[in-house]
Specification:
The chain is mainly alpha-helical. It is built from six helices and no strands. Helices cover 61% and strands 0% of the residues.
Length: 271
């Protein structure tokens, strides 16, 4: 689905197609140079260059809202599994040998199931999010080409650079936010709070760091005390992920609304 911003200038004209330089050999007498038309033959322009058009991010934003909600529900389930493991390890420490093996096996099953579901949710949500993020980046460049300091490819590549993925996507998102904001009626800068973006990014980065700590602790846990401590960190990680998912929904919906408004009403706000 595409939409065009009111007042957008038509794409520049395409100059006539210019053939490649002829091979340096001389042609036969009376024969035109290779690549040149015969006398009287009209010259047709080449195909028009590809032109970027505004494409509504609304459908992707709706899909993201659903996926992020499912991911948050799975994180809550994971938090419950970690809480069960934490409580179970407390009992094991207090009364060694008194906790049935079936209960211990159930804790392992719940923890493994939660981890598998989180991985699937993350892959699906991340894929749709990056597609949405690239689309709003392209729209932002159509709105305001001067708002960006890097090429649009960074809207995808920035997520896969170690360490850089902790700040590069955030910088791109801020530039998209600026490009998607309408100017005042007189053309002056019009501030729209970036709180939804900033809050989501801060919580998301903290959640990633805590989750990395939890993963390392859980892998190395070989005693009931170590499993108990890892489970406590896992609870914190899961709850932070829930908060990050909720804030991500607010950010996605707000930025999508900004672009829809600018596409429908033009670059200048009515009031």
């Amino acid at each position: 689905m595409s939409f065009s911003a009111p007042g957008s200038p038509p794409p520049p004209g395409q100059p006539p197609y210019t053939a490649a330089a002829p091979y340096p050999a001389q042609p036969y007498q009376g024969q035109p140079h290779p690549g040149q038309p015969y006398p009287g033959q009209p010259v047709y322009p080449g195909p028009p260059p590809p032109v970027d058009v505004l494409r509504s991010p609304q459908g992707l934003a709706t899909a993201l809202t659903v996926l992020l909600s499912v991911a948050a529900a799975i994180d809550l389930f994971s938090a419950g599994a970690n809480m069960f493991a934490w409580s179970l390890m407390k009992d094991v420490i207090a009364e060694p040998g008194q906790v049935p093996d079936d209960t211990l096996d159930l804790s392992d099953i719940l923890t493994g199931l939660a981890g598998g579901l989180q991985l699937l949710a993350m892959l699906g949500t991340a894929t749709v999010f990056i597609v949405w993020f690239y689309r709003v980046r392209v729209n932002g460049e159509i709105f305001r080409p001067d708002a960006f300091s890097q090429g649009r490819g960074w809207a995808i590549g920035g997520w896969f650079i170690p360490v850089g993925n902790l700040f590069l996507p955030f910088r791109t998102a801020r530039q998209i936010w600026t490009a998607s904001t309408q100017l005042g009626p007189d053309g002056s800068y019009r501030h729209v709070s970036t709180a939804p973006l900033t809050a989501w990014w801060v919580v998301w980065v903290v959640a990633l760091c805590v989750d990395r700590v939890f993963s390392q602790m859980y892998k190395r846990a070989e005693t009931p005390e170590a499993v108990r401590d890892a489970s406590a960190v896992g609870i914190a990680s899961d709850l932070l992920m829930v908060a990050a998912a909720v804030l991500a929904v607010l950010f996605v919906r707000k930025l999508t609304a900004l672009q829809n408004t600018k596409a429908a009403q033009g670059p200048y706000a009515a009031v």
